[in-house]
Amino acid sequence: MSKENPYYRNIVLKSPREVVYLEYTPSLLPPKPAADPDGTRWTRFVCVSDTHSRAFSVPDGDVLLHSGDLTNTGTVSDFEKTMQWLYGLPHPVKIIIAGNHDLTLHTEWYEREYERFHWNVGKQDIKPIMEMLKGARAQKAGIVYLEDEKYEFKVHENGKLWSVFGSPWSPEFFNWAFNYERETAEELVSKFPKTDILLTHGPAHQIFDRTNHDDLPGCQTLRARLSELRPRLHVAGHIHEAHGAHVHVWDPADDFAPPIIQNDDIVGSTNVDEPISVEVGGDVGLERTVFVNAANWPMGALARRDGVRPVFGGPGFQAVVVDLKE
């Protein structure tokens, strides 16, 4: 390993209907599983978040999922950088949401607060931003922007109809965009429908939400609601240092209790060379959720390997690849 190229580890989580590549050598990433003899196929989801107008290499796949903080502060210039990158990615379907840094997309809030953030560049025009997100070029690139919306799609002509709900909100944090007070969380989160995929910018409480200061700012109301929603895949971000993935088995004998999981529970030491393969057991008939914190900005304990800081979206902070059986 050179000091300029921190090494990749190989961390894979496996269960009968889910395969998750948390970390991998890009050139050696396996393809998604082949279709079963009965024709049942798999869909590959590539999960990113908190890219903040950065561009980096991500694996190909059927669907790209972006869980917010597309930009630094939501300027037109920021969005131009982000969208040029997204337009050029090969994924046929790209589903994106905003985060607390995408200030201009929270239009009512931005009208009140823009001078705090954009005093030096001036108030930003939302029209060209929305054109980038929803206009002809975005549609041609397969980009779907969701703001508290449900969307359904297929990646195979005769395949599964996938459903996804995307929400940009996260608990209040110094009055940034799409923040909510915890006492109003129930009103917001209760409207989330049951879907195959849930995209939220903020994580649920005690699920990949621990900060460098050992705070757990994830949403407690969302955590409680997960027992009812039980999506196949829940992708969040927001807490950069909590990047990680976990396959949870929903056990009715435990009242469908959600997991308590942080990234060091799975990854452990960052200085181990051996590959990690986690086989997720349990009754094959039980529902499972793949939980992902897909933040790509290196931060926290995982952002140092032998004293070397990984590149953006590099070792420890790669796009998380999730293969789901249809």
From TrEMBL:
<dbReference type="InterPro" id="IPR004843">
    <property type="entry name" value="Calcineurin-like_PHP"/>
</dbReference>
<dbReference type="InterPro" id="IPR051693">
    <property type="entry name" value="UPF0046_metallophosphoest"/>
</dbReference>
<dbReference type="Pfam" id="PF00149">
    <property type="entry name" value="Metallophos"/>
</dbReference>
<dbReference type="InterPro" id="IPR029052">
    <property type="entry name" value="Metallo-depent_PP-like"/>
</dbReference>
<dbReference type="GO" id="GO:0016787">
    <property type="term" value="F:hydrolase activity"/>
</dbReference>
<protein>
    <recommendedName>
        <fullName>Calcineurin-like phosphoesterase domain-containing protein</fullName>
    </recommendedName>
</protein>
<feature type="domain" description="Calcineurin-like phosphoesterase">
    <location>
        <begin position="45"/>
        <end position="241"/>
    </location>
</feature>
